[in-house]
Each structure stands twice: as structure tokens, then as C-alpha cells.
Amino acid sequence: MRIMQESTASFPGSDPKEKLLKPARDIRSILRWGYPKFATIRFVAEHSRLSAEERHILSRVIVSPEKVVSRIRKKIACDSINNRDLLLDGYNVLLSVDSLLKNEPMWFCDDGYIRDTRYYFGKKNQAEDLEEALDSVLEFLSEASLKSVSFLLDSQISRSGELAGFIRRKIENYGILGDAYTSKTADFDLKREGGNSEKNLIIATSDGIIIDSVRQVLDIPACLMEKKGIEPLRLY
């Protein structure tokens, strides 16, 4: 089994995981008393003199206790999606897989999902050259005997329409029944479609807000890591 190598480019002379273990424990202890997550992270981070990037990692990895159980229950096994309809949170999945392929740190978060912690506050500058990530996702999905696959992209991100067309051609090349489309309200659409009991859709995402609103979730980066024998990083 291969261990995920940690990128230390942004943490010269230090191990980000080791440095964050104690702050993570402190934050979790405080959250059990019902304090708000982001205020708690800010308080502990200031006390521990953490950088903005280190705070970002903690905000991605640590999840408020009241959300953990429900999110874990929604996560479905990688091998239990046969003959199901899957809707992907396009940029969320592709950018996460792109991070995995670039050997960026991938973290096992408190709610059981894998998340990358690339330090970006928008997808615009990261949404180029996603073909390798797309091929990795489609190769996995082509082996899963899914009923259908759809990619939903945020239309407000530059060239999303072109990417949707490229994805449609790729889907056809892989012999998968599916589609790709854009929306100005992508997050709302994912929550609406994934929460509809009649459609019984699986949503592929690691976005906690979306997970909280849908019925079943597939963690594709976790599936790819399991297949490749890669262990995520853990703040325990």
C-alpha cells in the first residue's frame, strides 16, 4: 500500500501534519461543547500562530460533530453503484482528482470524505488542463456498470461550456451513457436533484453543504485512492 507523499513546498522546514495535530485535537475538544467551527479554528489558529494556509487545511479537515454521523451514513461504497444514475459535482470532483494526480496532500476528513487542500479560493485559475483527471474518472466509471452519468459544471467559471462539450465527447468515447451541462445555480441544482427521493440519484461530491442536502454520495477521489492503494493523510 502506497502512502500519500506530503507536499511541503508551502511549509518550508516543517511537517504540516505534525504541526497541525495538536491544534486539530484542541479544536475538536472545543467543538464538542457546541462552539461554532470557524470561530473556534480562528481562536486556536491565532493561539498556535498558524498561517492562513494551515488554517485552510484545518477548516477543510475538521467537521462539526453534529454533522459527522449523517454525512457518513450518506456515503456509499465504491462497488455499490451498479445500475444507478450518477450526477457529478463536476469541478469539485475533477479538481480533487487533479490534486490527487499531482500528488498534492489528500486528507481523510472528520466526516469520512477525502478532500484536497490546495490553497485556492476560486476554481477559475484551476480549471484548465483537466483531461488527465477526466480520463481517470471516466475509466473508473466505465468499469462500474452505471445506468447513466452526468457532469454538472458551474457556468460562471470561464470556458465551462467548452469543457462540457469536451466531457460529452469523452463520455461517448468511453462507451458510457451520459451527458455534461452547465448551470448558473449548480450547487442548488445538485442539492435539489440529489434530495429528490423519486429520482434516487447518487451525487458525487465532497462539498459538505451539498452532502448535507442530498440522500446518497459517492466519494470518487476516495475510490481512486482505494484502487491505487494510496493512504490519505489524517490529523489524528
In brief, what are we looking at here?
With 236 residues, the protein is of the alpha/beta class. It has ten helices and nine strands.
Describe this entry's structure for a reader:
It comes from Methanosarcina mazei (strain ATCC BAA-159 / DSM 3647 / Goe1 / Go1 / JCM 11833 / OCM 88) (Methanosarcina frisia). Pfam families: DUF434, DUF5616. This is Conserved protein. InterPro entries: DUF434 (IPR007368), DUF5616 (IPR041652). The protein has 236 residues and is α/β, with parallel strands linked by helices. The protein folds into 2 domains: 47 residues; 155 residues, Rossmann fold, CATH 3.40.50. It has 10 helices and 9 strands. The strands form 3 sheets. It has a 5-stranded parallel beta sheet. Strands 1-9 form a two-stranded parallel sheet. Strands 3-4 form a two-stranded antiparallel sheet. Helix 7 links the parallel strand 5 and strand 6. Helix 1 crosses helix 2 and helix 5 packs parallel to helix 10.
